[in-house]
């Protein structure tokens, strides 16, 4: 049955998502902090591969979003049978796609790194190749976990994924300590602990859904594979635009990341650490974006557009508030936070300046540019989100990054300035689309 989304129900949905997203970031932080004792080359290698991994896993992450929207709308209609069927179709789709992505990434991992990042120090290249070899083994498991977590959120049960995230982080940190400090396996150890954690997360969530802990969704009979084309089409109608949008975002981001090697390892390490630290400022907002998928999706499925508008406004206020709190905290404590990573003085200074710029951009425009689009996707307006994101990425973020950095002589600082401009650009278009109400004309199921 569709949840009645009063203040208490929203709190029950959002706070576990916030904790879960923060814990998800700490997984990357743990790898980076614990590997920093090995050297700056290892920090740079993990950052390089994480950026590539994020690009390659977008396909099934986007499908999880599409599946969440479809399931949410069926739940809003109180059609639990079709909600369960859509859940199975989602899992079949992400498994097939993630296996294809895994094979491609495993075979061509070194070529991918060279094409995207060009020339780099030999020790960075060697470490990046090892880390990518191990982490790409986790793609199918991460895909299944992402799909399962999206299903739990679609039914409003975010506590399950929060508890799994707690377990995964404990395993990852413990694995890092054992593989890096005891066995001295460096980036190989960091990759192994990540792989083990993701395997367990996928297995546990599958068991829980099969046993009915995701009510009204159950995965009974999932082994009897049956593809339902209309449902897969509905998932893809949201998932493909979301995937293309995210892919363009990551490609553009990787192109701007190519700038940092020009300015040396210190700039690369400072950028890597600033990226890890600032992740904490947008993870709470990402949690609110996930809540928008569930809440707006259910409201639209029920045909109650007035409730969709009301709940979106309420959740966006929460998003702005917690984004500001986390960004201000990072601004105030940026020095000690960066100091955790044992950087050189030059890399430390780069990291501080990068974080200052990012905090300002976060408070001004991040909720509009990255949380609000989920409300549009939940209503089936994913193509508009895709076009705005793609155009803004290439005309604002990428172009301005090279103009600011080289033409205006701002150095690597120009990359972060261009990012802030991109936030403002896309956020303005999304806000206008929502206020005009064109999303109400779209259909998913």
Give the count of helical stretches: 16
- Which strand-content bin applies to the residues? under 5%
What is the β-strand count?
Answer: 0
Low-confidence stretches: none
Number of domains: 1
Descriptive notes:
There is one protein chain. By secondary structure, the chain is an all-alpha fold. The chain has one domain. It is built from 16 helices and no strands. The protein has helices at residues 7-35, 40-56, 58-76, 80-107, 109-117, 122-135, 139-154, 159-182, 186-210, 229-257, 265-301, 305-332, 334-339, 345-378, 382-407, 413-436. Helix 3 packs parallel to helix 7, helix 4 (80-107) packs antiparallel against helix 7 and helix 12 packs antiparallel against helix 14. It is globular and about 60 Å long. The chain starts with 6 loop residues before the first helix and ends in a 9-residue tail after the last helix. The model has no long low-confidence stretch (mean pLDDT 89).
Brief synopsis:
By secondary structure, this protein is mainly alpha-helical. The chain contains 16 helices and no strands.
């Amino acid at each position: 049955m569709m949840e009645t989304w009063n203040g208490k129900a929203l709190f029950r949905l959002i706070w576990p998502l916030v904790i879960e997203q923060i814990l998800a970031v700490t997984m990357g932080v743990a790898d980076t902090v614990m590997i920093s004792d090995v050297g700056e080359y290892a920090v740079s290698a993990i950052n390089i591969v994480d950026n590539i991994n994020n690009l390659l896993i977008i396909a099934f992450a986007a499908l999880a979003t599409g599946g969440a929207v479809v399931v949410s709308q069926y739940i809003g209609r109180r059609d639990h049978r079709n909600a369960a069927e859509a859940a199975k179709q989602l899992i079949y789709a992400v498994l097939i796609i993630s296996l294809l992505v895994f094979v491609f990434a495993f075979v061509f991992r070194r070529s991918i790194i060279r094409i995207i990042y060009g020339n780099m120090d030999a020790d960075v290249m060697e470490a990046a190749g090892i880390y990518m070899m191990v982490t790409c083994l986790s793609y199918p498991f991460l895909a299944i976990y992402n799909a399962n977590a999206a299903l739990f959120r679609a039914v409003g049960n975010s506590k399950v994924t929060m508890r799994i995230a707690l377990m995964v982080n404990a395993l990852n940190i413990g694995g890092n300590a054992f593989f890096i400090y005891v066995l001295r396996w460096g980036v190989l150890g960091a990759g192994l602990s990540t792989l083990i954690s993701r395997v367990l997360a996928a297995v546990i969530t599958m068991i829980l859904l099969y046993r009915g802990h995701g009510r009204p969704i159950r995965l009974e009979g999932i082994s009897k594979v049956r593809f339902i084309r209309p449902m897969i089409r509905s998932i893809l109608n949201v998932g493909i635009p979301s995937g293309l949008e995210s892919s363009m975002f990551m490609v553009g981001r990787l192109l701007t990341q190519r700038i940092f090697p020009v300015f040396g390892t210190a700039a690369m390490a400072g950028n890597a650490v600033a990226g890890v630290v600032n992740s904490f400022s947008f993870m709470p907002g990402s949690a609110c974006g996930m809540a928008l998928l569930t809440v707006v999706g259910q409201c639209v499925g029920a045909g109650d557009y007035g409730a969709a508008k009301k709940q979106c406004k309420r959740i966006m206020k929460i998003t702005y508030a917690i984004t500001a709190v986390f960004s201000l905290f990072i601004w105030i404590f940026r020095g000690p936070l960066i100091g955790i990573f044992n950087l050189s003085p030059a890399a430390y200074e780069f990291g501080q300046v990068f974080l200052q710029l990012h905090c300002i951009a976060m408070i001004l425009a991040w909720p509009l540019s990255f949380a609000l689009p989920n409300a549009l996707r939940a209503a089936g307006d994913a193509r508009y989100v895709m076009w705005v994101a793609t155009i803004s990425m290439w005309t604002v973020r990428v172009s301005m990054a090279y103009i600011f950095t080289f033409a205006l002589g701002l150095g690597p600082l120009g990359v972060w300035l261009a990012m802030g401009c991109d936030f403002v650009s896309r956020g303005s278009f999304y806000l206008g689309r929502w206020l005009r109400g064109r999303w109400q004309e779209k259909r998913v199921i």
